[in-house]
Structure formats: structure tokens, C-alpha cells
């Protein structure tokens, strides 16, 4: 597998190694001019969303992770990382498809980055 794979409608990029993210935590990565937060749950799932909270730009990778939820460290909005939906807050997160290969490389696909509600709330 190469670092980049493309089809007519998709581009998949190798972004990180799984061992760069401790279980139960998230890390921020810059990809194609976007900042992504990639989380590794204690249950072994790897999930990627936009890095900045839609409320006021809080660093979601620094949030408290429990199961597939994260709580923004700034004001406590809560999100479901598996869907991007807001559990507490006015709008959800952009979510990115993730694949982890057998060697522990994390790939992000950019074709289906669902445009979650991107408006900033005051
Ligand atoms: S910046 Fe995330 S809840 Fe305010």
C-alpha cells in the first residue's frame, strides 16, 4: 500500500501510526490544510473528526474521551465521535472515514467527509 490512494471520487492518505495515539486519547494532525483530531478509544476504535470545536474552536483532541464520546476542554460541549453528532451543544462535527492497516498505519479518506453543521455558535 502506498501513502496515497486515489479513485475517481476518493483520496485516502496515510496520516499517522496507531501507536502515536495512546488508548483513550486523541491527537491533532494537519492534512491537506485541514486539522483533524484522531481518537483511539480504549475499546480499540479509531475515529477522526475536525480538530476544532464548532463552538469556539476548542482543541477537541485535548478533550476527555469516554467510549466514543469526547467532551470539549473549553466549555464542555459533548460529541459522539462515531457519528459526529452533538450530544450537548448546538452543532455536530465533520467526520472522516478511517482505515487502519495491519501494520498500524492510519489512513483517512477525504471523499465522504460529511459536511456537518459548520456554523459557529456564540
Ligand atoms: S469551544 Fe468547545 S465547548 Fe466551547
Task: Please sum up the structure shown.
The chain is mainly β and 122 residues long.
- Strands side by side in the biggest sheet: 1-2-12-11
Shape: globular
- pLDDT < 50 stretches: 113-122
Specify the number of helices. Answer: 0
What is the helix fraction of residues, given as a range? under 10%
Overall structural domain count: 1
CATH superfamily: Rieske [2Fe-2S] iron-sulphur domain
How would you state the average pLDDT, rounded? Answer: 88
| Strand content bin | 35-45%
CATH architecture name: 3-layer Sandwich
Give the beta-strand count: 12
Rg measurement, Å: 14 Å
Bound molecule types: FE2/S2 (inorganic) cluster
> CATH first level: which class?
Mainly Beta
**CATH topology, anyone?**
Rieske Iron-sulfur Protein
Amino acid at each position: 500500500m502506498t501513502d496515497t490512494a486515489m479513485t475517481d471520487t476518493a483520496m485516502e492518505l496515510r496520516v499517522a501510526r496507531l501507536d502515536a495515539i495512546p488508548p483513550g486519547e486523541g491527537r491533532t494532525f494537519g492534512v491537506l490544510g485541514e486539522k483533524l483530531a484522531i481518537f483511539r478509544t480504549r475499546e480499540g476504535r479509531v475515529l477522526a473528526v475536525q480538530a476544532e470545536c464548532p463552538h469556539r474552536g476548542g482543541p477537541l483532541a485535548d478533550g476527555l474521551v469516554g467510549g466514543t464520546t469526547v467532551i470539549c476542554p473549553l466549555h464542555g460541549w459533548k460529541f459522539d465521535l462515531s457519528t459526529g453528532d452533538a450530544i450537548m451543544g448546538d452543532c455536530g462535527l465533520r467526520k472522516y472515514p478511517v482505515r487502519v492497516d495491519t501494520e498500524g498505519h492510519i489512513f483517512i479518506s477525504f471523499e465522504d467527509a460529511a459536511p456537518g453543521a459548520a456554523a459557529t455558535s456564540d
